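REQUEST ID: PR-0412
SUBMITTED BY: lab tech R.K.
PRIORITY: routine
TASK: structure prediction, single protein chain
INPUT:
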Amino acid sequence: MEGVGDDSIGMDCSIQPLRNEMFLISTTDFFFPLVDDPYIQGKIGACNVLSDIYALGVVNCDNMLMILAACSTMNDSERDAVTRKMILGFNDIAREAGTEIRGGQTVINPSPIIGGVAMACCSKDEFIYHDNAEIGDVIVLTKPLGTQIAVNLNEWIQDGSEYWDRVKDIITPDEVSVAYQCSVKSMTRLNRNAARLMHKYGAHGATDITGFGIVGHASNLAAHQHKKIDIEIHTLPIIKKNGRCSTKYHLF
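STATUS: complete
OUTPUT:
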């Protein structure tokens, strides 16, 4: 990962020049359990890895590796079932992306983990550097925000957490379920079309929005630009409790 300074969270992918004016674009990422269904967890893990190369406008992934941790706290039958379903979900998304899993690493861990490596060999015109933003550029979000909130709410209900007691008067379990299903659909949808559209409309840079939230990733993207710019975020699509996207207004 490229970084700026010691506290940078880095950008999405490594960009390594190769011979014959080609470049190797690669990224590594993995996820701890987010959802109830291990098959869906596998799909989310694969989408998350691939989203990094799509953020560089890379449309075609040439190779993927799988990082897998089988759960040591489950009994044998549970571990076999969960691990197989995570692998199946990961592979199904890889096939949807037009690529294959050709290797990886498996370990034993207290929590099941799924993730991997995505790689693409590209010419210079097949990817878009993240650092060429210009004044007047418009920021486009390809997915609504709020997936982590929906996932947390669902987990609090399942666990009977004290955190649910703090919010149960403003949202119902049925509304949480709808928002949760909406977030699952979002997290299992590839951003491959977005990568294509980056080339069609001449995008000057992009990033995915994951664990550091929109403020963290937007600040990091701004710090990596060649030109001195500010990123103003004033209209955000957010998952509502009825499963639809709501437009909230904020200014950072």
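NOTES: Residues 14-148+179-249 form a domain with the 60s Ribosomal Protein L30; Chain: A; fold (CATH 3.30.1330.10).
REVIEWED BY: pending
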